[in-house]
Design goal:
Blueprint: E1 3-7, H1 13-26, H2 38-50, E2 55-60, E3 63-72, E4 82-89, H3 98-112, E5 117-123, H4 127-135, E6 139-150, E7 153-163
Parallel strand pairs: 4-5
Antiparallel strand pairs: 1-2, 2-3, 3-4, 5-7, 6-7
Protein backbone atom coordinates (compact mmCIF):
# COMPACT_ATOMS: atom_id res chain seq x y z
CA UNK A 1 0.00 0.00 0.00
CA UNK A 2 1.47 3.31 -1.08
CA UNK A 3 0.32 6.28 1.00
CA UNK A 4 0.69 9.74 -0.46
CA UNK A 5 0.59 12.84 1.78
CA UNK A 6 -0.24 16.13 0.07
CA UNK A 7 -1.77 19.53 0.70
CA UNK A 8 -5.54 19.41 0.78
CA UNK A 9 -7.48 21.26 -1.89
CA UNK A 10 -11.07 22.53 -1.91
CA UNK A 11 -11.97 19.41 -3.91
CA UNK A 12 -11.05 17.29 -0.87
CA UNK A 13 -13.47 19.04 1.47
CA UNK A 14 -16.47 16.71 0.98
CA UNK A 15 -14.35 13.69 2.00
CA UNK A 16 -12.74 15.60 4.88
CA UNK A 17 -16.25 16.55 6.01
CA UNK A 18 -17.33 12.90 5.91
CA UNK A 19 -14.30 11.84 7.99
CA UNK A 20 -14.78 14.65 10.53
CA UNK A 21 -18.51 14.09 10.92
CA UNK A 22 -17.96 10.36 11.45
CA UNK A 23 -15.67 11.24 14.38
CA UNK A 24 -18.18 13.74 15.76
CA UNK A 25 -20.99 11.17 15.62
CA UNK A 26 -19.14 8.18 17.02
CA UNK A 27 -16.14 9.16 19.12
CA UNK A 28 -14.69 11.34 21.83
CA UNK A 29 -11.73 12.22 19.62
CA UNK A 30 -13.54 15.53 19.19
CA UNK A 31 -15.87 16.96 21.81
CA UNK A 32 -18.26 18.58 19.31
CA UNK A 33 -21.89 17.44 19.25
CA UNK A 34 -23.13 18.92 15.98
CA UNK A 35 -21.88 17.72 12.63
CA UNK A 36 -20.30 20.36 10.43
CA UNK A 37 -21.69 21.57 7.14
CA UNK A 38 -19.70 21.92 3.96
CA UNK A 39 -20.06 25.69 4.29
CA UNK A 40 -18.57 25.66 7.80
CA UNK A 41 -15.73 23.40 6.69
CA UNK A 42 -15.01 25.60 3.69
CA UNK A 43 -14.79 28.68 5.95
CA UNK A 44 -12.41 26.78 8.26
CA UNK A 45 -10.27 25.66 5.31
CA UNK A 46 -10.04 29.18 3.88
CA UNK A 47 -9.09 30.57 7.32
CA UNK A 48 -6.39 27.89 7.67
CA UNK A 49 -4.90 28.84 4.30
CA UNK A 50 -4.98 32.57 5.16
CA UNK A 51 -3.24 31.82 8.49
CA UNK A 52 -0.57 29.68 6.73
CA UNK A 53 -1.68 26.61 8.64
CA UNK A 54 -1.39 23.27 6.86
CA UNK A 55 -4.25 20.97 5.99
CA UNK A 56 -2.85 17.71 4.68
CA UNK A 57 -4.62 14.67 3.28
CA UNK A 58 -3.48 11.08 3.00
CA UNK A 59 -4.32 9.20 -0.17
CA UNK A 60 -4.19 5.59 -1.21
CA UNK A 61 -4.86 4.87 -4.89
CA UNK A 62 -6.24 8.43 -5.34
CA UNK A 63 -8.72 8.00 -2.46
CA UNK A 64 -8.50 10.39 0.50
CA UNK A 65 -8.52 8.27 3.65
CA UNK A 66 -7.48 10.81 6.29
CA UNK A 67 -6.42 14.33 7.02
CA UNK A 68 -4.39 16.29 9.51
CA UNK A 69 -3.83 19.92 10.40
CA UNK A 70 -2.50 22.21 13.06
CA UNK A 71 -3.34 25.67 14.24
CA UNK A 72 -2.15 28.06 16.91
CA UNK A 73 -2.61 26.51 20.35
CA UNK A 74 -4.21 29.64 21.81
CA UNK A 75 -5.06 32.98 20.19
CA UNK A 76 -2.73 35.21 22.24
CA UNK A 77 0.36 36.46 20.39
CA UNK A 78 2.69 34.83 22.91
CA UNK A 79 1.43 31.41 21.79
CA UNK A 80 2.41 31.95 18.13
CA UNK A 81 5.17 29.31 18.35
CA UNK A 82 2.87 26.62 19.77
CA UNK A 83 0.37 24.62 17.72
CA UNK A 84 -2.28 22.04 18.45
CA UNK A 85 -2.63 19.33 15.85
CA UNK A 86 -5.47 17.06 14.80
CA UNK A 87 -5.49 13.87 12.75
CA UNK A 88 -8.63 12.07 11.61
CA UNK A 89 -8.84 8.89 9.55
CA UNK A 90 -11.58 6.90 7.91
CA UNK A 91 -12.45 4.10 10.27
CA UNK A 92 -11.38 1.50 7.71
CA UNK A 93 -7.92 3.12 7.45
CA UNK A 94 -6.92 3.00 11.10
CA UNK A 95 -4.00 0.86 12.16
CA UNK A 96 -2.34 0.96 8.73
CA UNK A 97 0.36 3.54 9.51
CA UNK A 98 -1.50 6.39 7.80
CA UNK A 99 -1.80 8.45 10.99
CA UNK A 100 1.94 8.19 11.53
CA UNK A 101 2.68 9.44 8.04
CA UNK A 102 0.33 12.40 8.60
CA UNK A 103 1.90 13.20 11.98
CA UNK A 104 5.43 13.00 10.57
CA UNK A 105 4.41 15.41 7.82
CA UNK A 106 2.81 17.80 10.30
CA UNK A 107 5.93 17.72 12.48
CA UNK A 108 8.07 18.52 9.44
CA UNK A 109 5.77 21.41 8.44
CA UNK A 110 5.86 22.77 11.98
CA UNK A 111 9.67 22.72 11.97
CA UNK A 112 9.73 24.47 8.60
CA UNK A 113 7.42 27.18 9.96
CA UNK A 114 9.61 27.79 13.00
CA UNK A 115 7.14 26.29 15.46
CA UNK A 116 8.68 25.50 18.85
CA UNK A 117 6.17 23.02 20.29
CA UNK A 118 3.30 20.82 19.16
CA UNK A 119 0.49 19.90 21.51
CA UNK A 120 -1.99 17.06 21.31
CA UNK A 121 -5.18 17.28 23.33
CA UNK A 122 -6.43 13.71 23.69
CA UNK A 123 -9.42 12.16 25.41
CA UNK A 124 -7.90 10.26 28.34
CA UNK A 125 -9.79 7.07 27.50
CA UNK A 126 -8.11 6.97 24.07
CA UNK A 127 -5.10 4.93 25.15
CA UNK A 128 -4.31 4.11 21.52
CA UNK A 129 -3.85 7.76 20.63
CA UNK A 130 -1.76 8.38 23.74
CA UNK A 131 0.54 5.46 22.88
CA UNK A 132 0.67 6.62 19.26
CA UNK A 133 1.86 10.07 20.33
CA UNK A 134 4.44 8.61 22.72
CA UNK A 135 5.87 6.65 19.78
CA UNK A 136 6.61 9.99 18.06
CA UNK A 137 8.24 11.56 21.11
CA UNK A 138 5.25 13.34 22.66
CA UNK A 139 5.28 13.43 26.46
CA UNK A 140 2.25 13.70 28.72
CA UNK A 141 2.30 17.14 30.34
CA UNK A 142 -1.13 17.49 31.84
CA UNK A 143 -4.28 15.64 32.84
CA UNK A 144 -7.53 17.48 33.44
CA UNK A 145 -10.43 15.57 34.97
CA UNK A 146 -14.00 15.99 33.79
CA UNK A 147 -13.28 18.92 31.48
CA UNK A 148 -15.53 17.69 28.66
CA UNK A 149 -18.96 16.13 28.40
CA UNK A 150 -20.22 13.93 25.57
CA UNK A 151 -22.34 10.80 25.22
CA UNK A 152 -23.78 11.35 28.72
CA UNK A 153 -20.43 11.11 30.46
CA UNK A 154 -17.71 13.36 31.82
CA UNK A 155 -14.48 13.19 29.88
CA UNK A 156 -10.90 13.67 31.02
CA UNK A 157 -8.32 15.32 28.78
CA UNK A 158 -4.62 14.55 28.40
CA UNK A 159 -2.20 17.17 27.08
CA UNK A 160 0.82 15.78 25.24
CA UNK A 161 3.73 17.89 24.03
CA UNK A 162 6.58 17.57 21.57
CA UNK A 163 9.33 20.21 21.76
CA UNK A 164 10.62 20.78 18.22
CA UNK A 165 13.48 23.15 19.03
CA UNK A 166 15.55 23.09 22.16
CA UNK A 167 16.24 26.55 23.59
Amino acid sequence: MSVKIRNASPLDLPVILEILNQSIRTSTAIYDYEERTLEQLTEWFERMILDSMPVLVSEVENEVIGYGSFQRFRPKEGFRFSVEHSIYLKESSRGMGVGGRLLESLIQRAKEQGIHTMIGCIDASNRGSISFHEKYGFVEKGYIKEVGYKFDQWLDLVYMQLILKET
